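Quick note —
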Amino acid sequence: MDEVINDMNGRLINVEDQLRIVRVQTAKNYEFQTKMEGTLNEKVVEMESDIKLLKKAVTS
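Predicted structure written out below.
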């Protein structure tokens, strides 16, 4: 009986470790996604500005 309990405790610890790893990776992924969105938004704004300047240059 003690072996069964020890085995179950070992499995529970393993599951808790895996869950901790998933949580850490999820946080890292969220942080990366947030940074990428910010960078992409900046690039879009820059491109829109470049397009406006090109339109002015072409129509002048």
